[in-house]
Amino acid sequence: MPPVLSKLAVAAVLLLGGCAAPAGAGDKGMNVVTAFYPLQYLAQRIGGGDVNVTDLTKPGAEPHDLELSPRQVGRIVDARLVVYLDGFQPAVDQAVAQEAQGRAFDVGTAVTLLPAEEHEHEPGEEEHAEAGEGADPHVWLDPERYATIAGALAGQLAQKDPAHATVYEQRAAQIGTELKALDAEYQATLSTCERREIVTSHAAFHYLADRYGLTEVGITGISPEAEPSPQRLAHVAEEARATGTTTIFFETLVSPKVADTIAKEVGARTAVLDPLESAGDGEDYFTIMRANLAALTTALGCAA
Question: Is the pTM of this model over 0.70?
Answer without folding.
Answer: yes
